[in-house]
Inverse folding.
């Protein structure tokens, strides 16, 4: 009888190891973004999500893909690339990739949300996907290599316990701070208007290029580790990276939604249909 329940249980465990930023990180990104929406964008989000917030729906896409009938959406959360690419090579590979990936998924969902003729239900789904995908592509290990499944097969020793490179950057480093998502968002939401504008104006491909550069460094670091055991100062060294990526994700998500709903009364009104 035990085997009857073992497979579903293992599937849930494996699925949760693939959640980028973990629940806390994704919720913090949604919380930061919500505080930087224009009135028009905030109203449109409310019309689409009702009583749910951006933080509330930030892990919906991960919950969805754990259902067998939506397993096909799994490749929408990441992109696999070889190391050693320069910017132009990276851009060319991403923009011309035929296999499903987070870049093509983002573009598709932006199109759905921006189209005033899209049904309200489809727009709500597109919004939920976008909230999650912006978080995904800012998590460095979601823009990484196929051969190690984005760091999932790279085993590490962290604080005397086993983990892997992907899980470490999904949640372990964030959880070590001991903050819930509200406090995490409050702690990190202190970026100047000038810097916010600069980050928001960068194109989507640059958001991914930043993650690619970081993951390349992270791979090099673990290759140089003795026994794949993390030093005591690993947290302090990498917290600033996590802080910046969560900030960028939250502010860029807000900027993207503000842009979609900016000065577009037809589009804003269409979400009420």
């Amino acid at each position: 009888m035990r085997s009857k329940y073992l497979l579903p249980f293992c599937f849930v465990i494996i699925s949760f190891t693939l959640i980028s930023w973990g629940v806390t990180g994704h919720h913090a990104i949604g919380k930061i973004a919500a505080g930087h929406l224009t009135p028009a964008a905030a109203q449109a989000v409310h019309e689409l999500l009702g009583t749910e917030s951006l933080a509330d729906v930030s892990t919906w896409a991960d919950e969805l893909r754990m259902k067998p009938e939506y397993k096909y959406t799994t490749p929408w959360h990441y992109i696999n690339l070889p190391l050693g690419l320069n910017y132009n090579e990276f851009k060319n590979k991403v923009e011309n990739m035929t296999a499903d990936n987070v870049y093509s998924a983002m573009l598709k969902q932006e199109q759905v949300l921006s189209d005033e003729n899209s049904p309200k239900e489809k727009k709500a789904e597109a919004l939920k996907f976008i909230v999650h995908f912006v978080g995904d592509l800012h998590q460095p290990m979601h823009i990484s290599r196929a051969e190690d499944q984005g760091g999932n097969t790279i085993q590490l020793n962290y604080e005397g316990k086993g983990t892997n490179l992907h899980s470490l950057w999904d949640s372990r480093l964030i959880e070590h701070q001991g903050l819930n998502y509200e406090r995490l968002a409050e702690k990190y939401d202190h970026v100047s208007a000038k810097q916010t504008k600069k980050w928001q104006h960068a194109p989507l491909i640059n958001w991914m290029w930043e993650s690619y550069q970081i993951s390349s460094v992270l791979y090099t670091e673990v290759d140089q580790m003795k026994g794949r055991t993390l030093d005591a100062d690993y947290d302090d060294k990498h917290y600033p990276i996590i802080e910046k990526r969560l900030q960028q994700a939250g502010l860029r998500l807000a900027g993207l939604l503000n842009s979609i709903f900016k000065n577009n009364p037809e589009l804003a009104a269409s979400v009420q249909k």
